[in-house]
Amino acid sequence: TFLAPTPSPAGGECKDWCEADFKGGNNKGRHCAPGNMAPLCGGCSFCNASSCNACLCVFDIDRTLTGAQGRTDTCPRNKVLQFHDDAYGGGKATLSALTATGIDKTFCNGCYLGITSAGGGSGADSEWNKYLLDHVMKGDVQDSFTKKHPHVKTWSYGTNVNSPFVLYQRNKAKQDSVELIRRWYGHHGACVRNSEVYFYGDRTENIEPFAWKGLNSREISCGSRDRQRYGGSGLIGYCGATPGEIQKVKGNILCAR
């Protein structure tokens, strides 16, 4: 299934109110240099659309960055770690083929990174969650951004987005948090257009709603679905994402059924 996204205006480095003020027709000619509001709004994308050329990759955690705990017999490319992972009854945290290989081995190495999960990992203060931020969310662009903004490595919750790593955002509404992550990066100097946001998750019902925000999304773990849960429907993945599934393709793409 392929649903083409509808482009939306991009955000930029600016105060939270700048874009709405500009679009509302207020303070005409003042927002962008040489206007006197340029110190507050001059970094917004509407002042220099040509500078808005970054990309953003956002990932689910459970069965995307991870696979079924301990099941390297079924998922031989996965890697078991010593940390406890609370997801789906709990067990040893197990990296998917994607994260065992490294996100930096995909095109996302050149993009900003984020997480939006319906679960909480093993809790914001757990060793497992710390490992995710320190060792999984890595790439050239992200590492450079983190050096400039070390506070980035904190967790946010739902739609209260104060960092690009979000826990406890309900299923079928993840697009709301991902859009807020895009805006968060914009306020920190990284302008990303909606059309350059790419979400990857295993849960089928979460993919198509991204079209409502004009964001790209792709279902992963297509070759391994969990038939022991949700009445054998295959609603969620099993082994998790593979590097080959992390493609820079526009639209809202489901696994072939």
Distance between the termini: 9 Å
The H-and-E topology, N to C, reads as EHHEHEEHEHHEEHEEE
How would a crystallographer describe the biggest sheet?
8 strands, mixed
Number of strands: 10
- Which stretches are poorly predicted, pLDDT < 50 over at least 5 residues? 1-12
**What's the quaternary structure here?**
single chain
Shape: elongated
- Compute the CA-based radius of gyration: 19 Å
In which order are the strands of the major sheet placed? 1-10-9-8-2-5-7-6
SSE class: alpha/beta
> How many distinct helices?
7
How large is the share of residues in beta strands?
Answer: 15-25%
Rounded average pLDDT: 91
Secondary structure: helix percent:
10-25%
Structural notes for this entry:
- The chain is of the alpha/beta class and 257 residues long.
- It is 21% helix and 18% strand.
- Residues 1-12 have low confidence and may be disordered.
Key attributes of the depicted protein:
7 helices; 10 strands; two-stranded antiparallel sheet; alpha/beta; 257 residues
Set out the fold topology:
Layout: E1 2-3, H1 18-23, H2 38-41, E2 54-59, H3 61-65, E3 79-85, E4 91-95, H4 97-101, E5 112-116, H5 127-136, H6 140-148, E6 156-157, E7 165-167, H7 174-187, E8 192-201, E9 216-219, E10 252-253
Quick gist of this model?
This protein has helices at 18-23, 38-41, 61-65, 97-101, 127-136, 140-148, 174-187, and strands at residues 2-3, 54-59, 79-85, 91-95, 112-116, 156-157, 165-167, 192-201, 216-219, 252-253.
